[in-house]
Write a structure and sequence with these properties.
421 residues; alpha+beta; Thrombin, subunit H; Pdz3 Domain; six-stranded antiparallel beta barrel; 20 strands; 18% helix
Length: 421
């Protein structure tokens, strides 16, 4: 029975060309033809005997041919296809929301600065902190966070300010107010063309409004992020263990370095100063906080004049009521009076400092009818008054026994003196 024969199929172009070249070269001539090869003599000359091997020349030729045929089958030697040059399609006009965002950034970015607070130690300059700032006026006054430029009380403290145009200038510390985490610095040599931020209002803000933050997170200058107002009237504790209330909560990305930067509304108006973030790792978790501009703006002129931002005070030193003192006196909140200034309003009204030894003293629990849970809350009440005003203070008075009694009293505020600096 004869074995089955399967058709080989169509030869490739390379195979077909090789055969044609072979036949054209005369290799198919019969033995004895002129200039032809005597196939029989070539065969006789290289006749293989059992056990012999193919010569290196023929083996190499066969290997080369096999490789060539394989490469041809996969298209290696095919001519390159025509490559069409892609045409760029015009994107068209920007969306209205994009135009608004771009306009807000371009209009306000010149009002944002990068602040580096340094301290000289012998021959080295050590960075104390870095943050952002807001150009307040053309005279070189800049608003920032107190924790960004906290003074060290010596002449080795230096503040460097990098402007929008990359110019770096020195500045001096003017005045700070830790209880709102704000400070004023001033450029030593203010250049022409400073662009102050446009002051807006935070009194009518609503949750859900669009907001934009400009600052220098991680030292990356002139960074814009956006989001919405997530909540209003939040109470937080800042890096310096200062409790702030009435702050704006936003979900715009705020990171270390954004402190002291601008928080803007959708009209590009300054509505707050970025101050803190809530994060377990020190990076943005979508929860940032800003001090409202309505609280900041009235204080700035006094601070520029190196005066306390609050016009008048009670004449006391105090701190928040915390545990374990709260457990000892049996009261849950308030501001503990620790010292009464002789001749001040509190002294004249008979307020008493708390003694840890005897347990006798006063805790302020209300002011002008407002529940006072923190020292910052008390300051917020005082910010609305001036020297000579009389306000009502409610005390939880402890007499050294296990109990206390509530004492409403009136205190006449006296003007505060500016600290000597």
């Amino acid at each position: 029975m004869k074995p089955a024969v399967f058709p080989a199929g169509t030869l490739s172009r390379l195979e077909d060309g090789a055969i044609s070249q072979y036949e054209a070269s005369g290799s198919s001539r019969q033995p004895g033809d002129e200039n032809g090869y005597d196939v029989r003599s070539m065969t006789d000359r290289y006749t293989r005997t059992p056990g012999s091997s193919i010569t290196p020349l023929l083996a190499g030729a066969a290997l080369v041919l096999a490789g060539y045929l394989m490469l041809d089958r996969i298209g290696t030697f095919d001519s390159a296809p025509d490559i069409e040059t892609r045409v760029v399609t015009p994107r068209g006009d920007l969306a209205d929301s994009e135009k608004t965002t771009i306009e807000i950034f371009e209009r306000n970015s010149p009002s944002a600065v990068h602040i580096t607070s340094t301290h000289r130690q012998q021959r080295r300059v050590v960075s104390q902190g870095t943050g952002s700032g807001i150009i307040w006026d053309t005279q070189g006054y800049i608003l920032t966070n107190y924790h960004v430029v906290t003074p060290r009380g010596d002449t080795n403290h230096e503040i460097l300010v990098r402007l929008h145009d990359k110019t770096t200038l020195t500045a001096n510390y003017v005045f700070g107010y830790a209880y709102v985490d704000m400070a004023i610095i001033r450029l030593d040599k203010p250049p022409r063309g400073l662009k102050p931020a446009v002051i807006g209002s935070s009194g009518d803000l609503r949750v859900g409004q669009n907001v934009f933050a400009i600052g220098n997170p991680f030292g990356l200058e002139q960074t814009l992020t956006s989001g919405i107002i997530s909540a209003l009237n939040r109470s937080i504790k800042t890096k310096g263990d200062v409790e702030l209330d009435g702050v704006i909560q936003v979900d715009a990305a705020i990171n270390p370095g954004n402190s002291g930067g601008l928080l803007l509304d959708s009209a590009g108006m300054l509505i707050g100063m970025n101050t803190a973030i809530y994060s377990q790792k020190g990076e943005s978790a979508g929860i940032g906080f800003a001090v409202p501009i309505d609280r900041i703006a009235p204080m700035v002129p006094r601070m520029m004049a190196k005066k306390p931002p609050i016009d008048a005070g009670l004449g006391i030193k105090a701190h928040n009521l915390r545990q374990p003192l709260g457990r000892e006196v049996g009261y849950g909140y308030g501001v503990v009076i620790t010292e009464v200034t002789p001749g001040g309003g509190a002294d004249e009204a008979g307020l008493r400092a708390m003694s840890r030894v005897t347990g006798v003293g006063d805790v302020i629990v209300r002011a002008e009818g407002k529940r006072i849970e923190t020292l910052n809350g008390l300051y917020r009440v005082l910010e609305k008054h001036k020297g000579g005003d009389t306000i009502t203070i409610t005390l939880a008075r402890f007499d050294g026994t296990d109990g206390y009694h509530v004492v409403p009293t009136k205190v006449t505020l006296k003007l505060l003196e500016a600290p000597k600096r």
